[in-house]
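Format is sequence with structure; example below:
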Amino acid sequence: MGLVQHEGGPCGVLAAIQAFVLKYIIFFPDQLAKDGVSQRSALTRMQRNENLSSDYFASISEDEKTRALVKSIGEILFLCGSQRRAVIATHSVGANLAGISEDNQKDEVIAQALDGVTFESAADFQNNLRITICASRTSTLHRLESMIPIFRSRMGAILFLISALLSRGLDSIQDDRDDPSLPLVTAPFGHASQEIVNLLLCGQAVPNVFDGRMDLGGGMFLKGVSSTVEVGFLTLLESLNYCKVGQNLKRPKWPIWVVGSESHYTVIFATNTNVQDENELELRESQIRKAFDAQDQSGGGGFISVEGFKQVLRETGMNLPSEKLDHLCSAGFIVWSEFWQVLLDLDKSLGGLKDPAGSMGKKVFDLYHFNGIAKSVSNGGQITSSGEVPVQRPRLTKLRVSVPPKWTPEEFMAEAGCSTKDATEVSKPEPSQHAPLVDCIRTRWPRAVCNWAGDPPSIV
C-alpha cells in the first residue's frame, strides 16, 4: 500500500502522492476494482467503526494498487490545473512502450532503457521530455494508465513534479510564491520546498501553512492555504513554535496528513473518519480559534490587537466580564494562551468553555504512521547465513491515541461532582510513550497520549 523511497530527496513528492493513494485504498475501494466491487467496500460504507483486519492491506491486488496510483496522480494534476486541465510530462523512452501489453514487461523495458541515462544539462533533459495536455479527467486517467511505468521508474518523481508545475503553469507558480527567487527544490540534497508540498496538497505553490493570506501593510501579503484540502499537513516545526498550521490543512476532508520534520516527509492516517468529529465544546473552541487566528497578524505568534480582539468577541458572541476584559487588554495586545485560560474559566452560558455537565469526553482512536524510506527498518534486522544484509523496507506503525478532556482531572471532578470512586478513575494516569511524531500529533490533538508496539515511529 506504500510507495518506497530508496534515496534521499523526493520524500515531499512521494508523501503527497502516498496520502492520496491511501485515500483511494481506504475510502474509495470500489473505484479501484475492475468490476466496481471490492472486498473492502462494506467496511468503507460502515465508516470503519472497527479496527482494520491485519490482512487488510495485504489483500490489495496489484491492479488495485496501480489504479490507486493512477487516480492519485490524476487527481493531484487536475488540482494543480485548477480542475480544468492536467499536463503530463514523460520521457522520450516511453515510445518503447508501444506494443507491450503486460505492465510488468513495460516496467522492465523502462528500467532497462533508463539504466545509465544521464543528462549533461537542463536543456538536454528538456529535449527528452514529451508533454501531453489533457482537458478531462477521463483522458488524463487513460494517458496515465498507458504511461504509468514511466512514473514507476527511477525518473518518476521528477517527471511527476514537472507535470504538477506545468499543470499549474509556471507563471502561476511564481505568482503563488512570496519570494519567486528562491529555489523550489533545495540544495544540496534535493528536498522539496513547502511550496511544492502545498502545490500537491492544495493546487497552489504558496509558501506558508496558515489559512488565507496575511496583510503586512503597504500592499504586502504573505500567502497561505486558501481552502480546505482533501488530505492535510502537520509539521514538527509547529511544536517547536516555528510556524502555525491553519485549520485548512489540520482538518482535511479525509483523516490523512503528510507529516513534515526538519529533513523528511512521512504520512499519518486513520481509517475512521470519526477521528475528526468534535463534540459541542470542541466545535465552540474551533469557532473561537478560527476567529482569533483571522485577526492574528503576527505570523502565527498567537497574539492580536485590542481592536482585533473586540472583533473576535463580536463574531463569537462572547460576553466577557468587564474585569476579565480589562485584564486581557491591559498590555495593548491579547495573547492566545492567556485568552485560553479565560475561556476555560468562563461559563458556557457566557460563550466560554466551562461546562459543569462535563460533556468534554476523552477520545480514543487509532492512527497509522507510514515512513516510505527503505532505510527505516531492515527486513529481519540480522545478517543472513550467507553474509548478505537483508533487504530494507518501509515501516508502518499503529498508534493508539488517547485525547483527554480539555480540563484537568481536578477541574473535571470539581465541576462534575464526581464521587471518590469516579475521582480515582479520572485521575488515573495514562501510560505514555514519546517520539517526535507525538509532538506533531499534539499540534492536531492537544495533550494526546500515544502508544505503540515495538520501536518508536520515525519521522526522519
Q: What stands out?
A: The chain has a mean pLDDT of 84.
